[in-house]
Design brief:
By secondary structure, the chain is mainly beta. It is 0% helix and 52% strand. The strands form 2 sheets. Strands 2, 4, 5, 6, 9, 10 and 11 form a 7-stranded mixed sheet that branches. Strands 1-3-8-7 form a 4-stranded antiparallel sheet, with no helix packed on it.
Length: 113
């Protein structure tokens, strides 16, 4: 069955960096686009970044452009989210997503001011 397992979250000061990882299994990873979403307390889940199957095309929500980078390693069935210059408003649970229907358990990112 499909499994998406996120890791790499934590507590960081504003201006710091974190790298999230999502290990995927149960489907042919290299054939599909992947996405990262986040959900802050009291807010709707929002799409943060997406990457095409071969990694050539990426998209970002405006609020993270220039600070976050999505990438993937198809040999390792893993998608990453490098987050730099973190802000308190980036605090949320971050989720890996495949085809909008499959989600990981989420990893908490907390940015202190």
């Amino acid at each position: 069955q499909v499994q998406l397992v996120e890791s790499g979250g934590g507590l960081v000061q504003a201006g710091g960096s974190l790298r999230l990882s999502c290990a995927a299994s149960g489907f042919t990873f290299s054939r599909y686009a992947m996405s990262w979403y986040r959900q802050a307390p009291g807010k709707e889940r929002e799409l943060v970044a997406s990457i095409s199957s071969n990694g050539d095309d990426t998209t970002y929500v405006d609020s993270v452009k220039g600070r976050f980078t999505i990438s993937r390693d198809n040999a390792k069935n893993t998608v990453y989210l490098q987050m730099n210059s973190l802000k308190p408003e980036d605090t949320a649970v971050y989720y890996c997503n495949w085809r909008r229907s499959f989600w990981g358990q989420g990893t908490q990112v907390t940015v202190s001011s």
